[in-house]
Structure formats: C-alpha cells, structure tokens
Amino acid sequence: MVRGLFVFILSFVTFVGSFSSVTHADPITAADGSLVTVLPANLTAPGTLRPLLEEMLRRSPTFRQQVSKLRAAPHVKMAIRYSDVSSWHVLRAESTVSRFEWGAMQVDTQLYTVRDAVEVIAHELEHVCEQIEGLDVRQLSHQRNTGVYSVGQHFETRRAVLVGRQVAREALGLTLGSAPPTHPTE
Ligand SMILES: [Zn+2]
Question: What's the rounded Cα separation, in Å, for the pair 11 and 109?
Fold first, then answer.
C-alpha cells in the first residue's frame, strides 16, 4: 500500500439517472477474438467482472482507448469492486481518487449496481482518464460551461457521462446515436 505524507483526495459519484438506460438483457457472446483484450495489470476487478471487461474491450473502440490510457500510466492503479448493492439506491457508483505526493494515484471504484455495469464502469474509468490528464475538476467546477460540476463534496463531468453511454452503445453493437443528455449529472 502506498503511503504519503500528503494525500489529495477527489471523489466522484454517479447518480441513478432517469434516462432509460441500455441494458444488456441478452448475454454477451464471444466476438471474433482478433483484438487484444488483455486487461492491464494496474486494473483490478472481481473475477466475475473480468469476462465482461474483456468483452467490452473486444466490442468497444472507446473502451480500448480508455484502457490503453490507463495501461500507459503505471503510476495509476484502479481497483473496482462491488459494494453492498442492496443498501444504495441513489448512487450507481463512487470513485475515490487518492493522489500521493510523489505522483502515485490510487482509484477505488465501488459499484452499487449490477445493472448497466458496462456504462457505469466506462463512466468511472473516464474519471480516471481525466485525472491521468491532470484535469483540475475542483477549479473547473467553479467556472461556467466547463462540463464539470460539483455535487456536494463530489464531482461529476459531462465527459464521463457521454463516454459511459458511448461505450455502452458500442459494447452492445449499436450504431444508433442517442439524444444528448438534458442534465449533466443524470
Ligand atoms: Zn461520474
């Protein structure tokens, strides 16, 4: 475990939206297998989630871009786990980003839903990409039209909302666009 004298913590929460989410009701089947679908070492997830993540890699170019960005940042570690799904109804996921003084970053992502897992994981991973790029969400949330919002002590970004939906569409093999979000935090 990384320890530092200085830890800068950011927290992102993803609320349950009112939009009709794409669901993967039909089981995800094997694709052609011609793509590299190996998860990077700095992404840990429950064994039950790994087949889903690998299928997302096969199907979604956007998810592949996200994962390669994470792979190229070995100082960043992302750990995904399920939390107590039954006791949370307002949140879909929560990511806590801890930045340590020498540049290491640890992201702990808790999933509070088993529905829409594709979208939620991609959404949270996009927050990690934002942090890899050095996006200052705290500062941007005070400015207009940045697509960054503070929600209590937490942050949300329009970018993560859109990328989550994009990956969900790609992973489901859909090519149809969807209406732009009317609410950034939905
Ligand atoms: Zn978010």
Answer: 10
- Domain spans, the chain: 7-16+32-171
Tell me how far apart the alpha carbons of residues 85 and 93 are, in angstroms, rounded to a whole number.
Answer: 10
Ligand 1 centroid–CA 34 distance in Å is 31
What pTM does this model have? 0.79
**How many A from CA of 149 to the centre of ligand 1?**
10
Cα 66 from Cα 153, distance rounded (Å) = 26
- The closest alpha carbon to 120, from 154, 149, 82, belongs to 82
Residue among 51, 131, 100, 144 at smallest CA distance from 160: 131
What separation in Å is there between the alpha carbon of 160 and the centre of ligand 1? 6
Q: Splitting the chain (186 residues) into consecutive groups of 10 residues, what average pLDDT does each group show?
A: 59 59 36 65 94 93 96 96 71 88 90 86 96 94 93 90 95 58 48
Residues with CB under 5 A from ligand 1 (ion): 12, 14, 156, 160
CA of 33 to the centre of ligand 1 (A): 30
